[in-house]
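$ run holo --ligand "4AD" --emit tokens
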Amino acid sequence: LSEDTSLPKARTIKLWQKDVPLGDAAKNVTGTRVKVFGRIHRLRVQKQATFLTLKDGYGFLQCVIAAGPLTSTYEALLFAQETSLFLYGELRTVPEGATAPDARELHVDYYEVYGRAPGDAEAITNIVASGQQDPWESDMLDKRHLVLRGEKASAVMKLRSILYESFIIQYKERRIAAVSPPAFVQTQVEGGSTLFKVPYYSEDAYLTQSSQLYLETCLPSMGDVYCIEKSFRAEKSLTRRHLSEYTHIEAELDAIDFDDLLTHIEDMICGVVDAVLADPAGKELVELLNPGFVKPQRPFKRMKYTDAIDWLNAQDPPVPNEFGEPHVFGDDIAEAAERKMVDTLNVPVLLTHFPAEVKAFYMKKDPQDLRVTESVDVLMPNVGEIVGGSMRMDKYEELMEAFKGKGLNPEPYYWYLDQRKYGSSPHGGYGLGLERFLAWLAHQHTVRTCCLYPRFMGRAKP
Ligand code: 4AD
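-- output --
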């Protein structure tokens, strides 16, 4: 097989390029001759032609190879799903009444196969064709590298990329600066039970659970700051929203009060959603993955912890706590109860003022009611908590008391305590789990399909 050199030189394109002039056979218009690289996503061999859907990571292209010399080569006989190849040919609009991605098709005049794929059609077709997968099945998780080639799975990852970018844009618009705190740390933030301990030269270190404490140290030098880093939690339960390694979007804001914090969080969530939808690719992906998605209405519903307890007990039948008993003040609101509430209310909820004993050591107490903290969880229908935040204790003595209360040795936190010694400030911040936000936006059943290679108890491959 050789390329016909009398044909116009092919223009190399990627499938995101949608403005390539198309031919139209019915109108006798010649289209652009292009060269495109990709892999066979679908293959249909018919008497008069071989039809393939090519994918290049940016999009799909319907390709037609007329039966003849091009379809009778040895390589053509071996065409299989995932075979990679360069295709050359004329781009035309699809004939009237037919449909194809971007309403165009490639009339192939030459090709070069680059990488064959085994024709174990059944296995690969099930995995890749739709990207549909049962995220709990270990076989599918072992084959995540192939699952990712599927339409749905890759759509989720593409949306993730746009979402990630949108956060950065929103922070930049608000003049909040990016920093990059360390992953190896020697302090805990969210409790000792989920720390990963790692050998660190001649001492021990932990993988960070949250960059919050470090962000707080940046306020005097950089003003408001954010980071997008990995956080690590040795979660010992397998739920649909817990990972051992997740992408944590955290921000810390200086000289604010609790109401400012709540308003900022609401504003960021809405700003990010708007930014995703303002991107044509983002809009298309949301429509594909979450048809009928409606933007959250502002202002978000605000609910105090005590009102949530009352709400849970007022249901018929009442929603029990984790021990099967009616909720009382001081109970943690467990995942199931939280979910029941937010799914019933079916709107985002800013759940505030949690009791000090169920929350982390650093949270500032509410001056109106010292039993509770100026803390907030943002709950989303279908997912539950996506954000956790609070105002921070900013008085040295109070923080020392808090360490004592939680049985923590303050010594490794000397640098954190120094913030309260050298010109303290009223400040607060939050952390948002990117995978949970994406699970909500892309209507995914679990955070596992919202990361490239999920990590959770019992899984660290591929
Ligand atoms: O509520 P968390 O534990 O809060 C903190 O870590 C604060 N120090 C953050 C801060 O104020 N800067 O975690 C914040 C968010 C949760 O709301 C959730 O979205 C996500 O991080 N998250 C997890 N996501 C996936 N898997 C896990 N195991 C997660 N743990 C927390």
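-- notes --
The pocket of 4AD is lined by residues 189-190, 210, 212, 233, 235, 242-243, 246, 248, 250, 385-389, 429-433, 435-436, 447 (CB under 6 Å).
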